[in-house]
Amino acid sequence: MAIDLVRSKSGAAVHARRHQVVIVGCGFGGLFAAKTLRRADVEITVIDRTNHHLFQPLLYQLATGILSEGDIAPPIRHVLRHQRNTHVVLGEVVDIDLDARQVTVDTLGQRSRIPYDSLIVATGASQFADDDRDLDYRLIQVGIGTQLTNELP
After folding, report:
1. Residue 19: phi, psi to the nearest 5?
2. Which domains occur in the chain, in start order?
3. From the CB of residue 86, how many other CB atoms can be counted at a distance below 10 Å?
4. Is-contact 33 25, C-beta < 8 A?
5. Closest by alpha carbon to 120, among 12, 15, 48, 60?
6. Mean pLDDT split into 10-residue runs, the chain, 153 residues
7. What is the model's pTM?
8. Who contacts 21 (Cβ-Cβ below 8 Å, separation ≥6)?
9. C-alpha to C-alpha distances, 109 to 1, 51, 90, 92, nearest whole angstrom
């Protein structure tokens, strides 16, 4: 939490807490929100279950061996490294307490609470998967793209 030194009406120095923005999810929506707020006078916390931002439209190039995993799934911290008002938390949000204005994050079994003034939920969508997984590949994850690359002749 960032504390800024500001002057009161009387001229005395006082501490003021910056507005806290929590962004849950760092797909296209979460990443766009974080980048849009890069110059705002706010503290941003980005929470995601993975440590990378996956650019899904290029998964087919991973599967064919044209690009590597790092080319289409850069670390979130690397993507946001120049944003001094942003930090990234690896974990899964397991609870949102609207009254207390805080999210509970589970990181490898450790739970922590992160307060917010503004909350952006950008968790994306899930893919529909039918029961017959042997018939096709769904290029929605880096691991599937890598597996498909290894299975191609």
Report:
1. -60, 130
2. 16-124+132-151 (3.50.50.60)
3. 22
4. no
5. 48
6. 52 73 92 95 94 72 73 81 94 96 96 97 72 51 60 60
7. 0.70
8. 37, 42, 43, 44, 45, 116, 117, 118, 119, 120
9. 23, 17, 12, 10
